[in-house]
Amino acid sequence: MAGVAGRLGRLWCSGALSSPLQVTRFPALQLHLCGPAMRASQKDFENATNQVKLLKKDPGNEVKLKLYALYKQATEGPCNVPKPGVLDFINKAKWDAWNALGSLPKETARHNYVDLVASLSASSESSIQVTPAADRKQPGSDALVVTSQDGITTITLNRPDKKNALTTQMYHDIMLALEAAGKDDSAITVLTGNGDHYCSGNDLTNFTDIPPGGVEEKARSGAVLLRDFVDCFIDFPKPLVAVVNGPAVGISVTILGLFDIVYATDRATFHTPFSHLGQSPEGCSSYTFPKMMGPSKATEMLVFGKKLTAREACTQGLVTEVFPDSTFQKEVWVRLKAYSKLPPNAMRISKQVIRNTEKEKLHAVNAEESNILRERWLSDECMNAVVSFLSKKAKL
Ligand SMILES: CCCCCCCCCCC/C=C/C(=O)SCCNC(=O)CCNC(=O)[C@H](O)C(C)(C)COP(=O)(O)OP(=O)(O)OC[C@H]1O[C@@H](n2cnc3c(N)ncnc32)[C@H](O)[C@@H]1OP(=O)(O)O
């Protein structure tokens, strides 16, 4: 069995097991899906299948087999496929687990699955309480996870091994997630990161995928993407909160000026090394940063690439409040849950009163910044900086 367990573990890590066991990354989220006395609805079940993707710890092969079996029983009923051969260790272990459930009714399996996921999530490390929104179209990859509970829709960047660097797919997925969150019945929306970083900004390998139209076409389409992406933040209709769980770089910092609240762990740093990269500011930061911190502090950040600590960023008005890392998740989510109980329409309208006067200006700034960046991306300064990053990465 040790051999089977080892192989299953490897498969788990490589994502080779079929849904819902394709889980490779686990943010610190805790879940309370439904109380023990309640029956699990189809929506609870779908929530749970999404929530499995957010478990912080690998639950071990025994539990994974149990999850697999309950999922199959809940979706397909009693085991209905031929028993795999004895040497087909993994599929046989899966088959055995499913078959062991006998004629357990689908509804009971669904309920047990939901309960099991809830207990796994509850034993996870932090105190966030979220449930995936079952009626929401999930993004095209696990790099972004959208959950919704207690009036809060949370969009989690989920590429911790790459410090949550933003791929072009993620820009698109975030736009879709924001569009849905703007219309759903949550009161507030949160953007956060999984792992030790909040976000390392634009994934610099985005520069390597050159289309047939060449680098000019890449820069043109990149500028359109950037402009559309930032527009979504400018126009977002509800209170938008950044839960900055660690260091933030590049565009993940600049768009903070478009958030309504920014909570940061004291471990977070804020870094916009645009000149080092031969690039220029985006996310409307050329307007919002000087406005909030004055032109000279903004210049230190945006032109000279000075990295701010969380406390410095708070002093400059970029961060709303800084929390000790040890209590960050707990304190922030307690606070947000309380806010999310306020009347949502009043909050939405108040946000719009605060923000609407600036919208036209922000759109114009965004268009201008995107155009300037399009040119920058074609410059030798930028190309050299990207090549330098990629060569270090490739250990050349
Ligand atoms: C024309 C193209 C257009 C494309 C589409 C455009 C869309 C809009 C663009 C908007 C413009 C945005 C600009 C920016 O955001 S500029 C900022 C870019 N980011 C950076 O320069 C950060 C680079 N990373 C780092 O400095 C460090 O990784 C970091 C300090 C964040 C963490 O350091 P640490 O030592 O803790 O970790 P590692 O360096 O070992 O990183 C772990 C792995 O993650 C990879 N990584 C990290 N950041 C990025 C990134 N931004 N892009 C790609 N990959 C990243 C890193 O390489 C390691 O990977 P490996 O384990 O595979 O080596």
TrEMBL record:
* Main localization of the protein described in the UniProt heading: mitochondrion
Does Acetylation count among this protein's keywords? Answer: yes
Name the Pfam families for this protein: ACBP (PF00887), ECH_1 (PF00378)
Question: Which residues belong to any copy of the ACB domain?
Answer: 41-126
Alphabetized, the UniProt keywords read:
Acetylation, Isomerase, Mitochondrion, Peroxisome, Phosphoprotein, Transit peptide
Q: Which EC main class describes this enzyme?
A: isomerase
What InterPro entries does the record point to? Acyl-CoA-binding_prot_CS, Acyl-CoA-binding_protein, Acyl-CoA-binding_sf, ClpP/crotonase-like_dom_sf, ECH/Chromodomain_protein, Enoyl-CoA_hydra/iso, Enoyl-CoA_hydra_C, FERM/acyl-CoA-bd_prot_sf
**In Gene Ontology terms, what is one molecular function of this protein?**
delta(3)-delta(2)-enoyl-CoA isomerase activity
Q: Does the keyword Transport apply?
A: no
Q: Give the highest taxon in the source lineage.
A: Eukaryota
Q: Which reaction does it catalyse?
A: (3Z)-octenoyl-CoA = (2E)-octenoyl-CoA; (3E)-nonenoyl-CoA = (2E)-nonenoyl-CoA; (3E)-octenoyl-CoA = (2E)-octenoyl-CoA; (3E)-tetradecenoyl-CoA = (2E)-tetradecenoyl-CoA
* E.C. number: 5.3.3.8
Report the locations given in the UniProt record. Mitochondrion; Peroxisome matrix
The terms describing its cellular component in GO are: mitochondrion; peroxisomal matrix
Q: In which pathway does it act?
A: Lipid metabolism; fatty acid beta-oxidation
Task of the protein: Able to isomerize both 3-cis and 3-trans double bonds into the 2-trans form in a range of enoyl-CoA species. Has a preference for 3-trans substrates.
Entry similarity comment: In the C-terminal section; belongs to the enoyl-CoA hydratase/isomerase family.
Protein name as annotated: Enoyl-CoA delta isomerase 2
What species is given as this protein's source? Answer: Phocoena sinus (Vaquita)
Q: Which gene encodes it?
A: ECI2
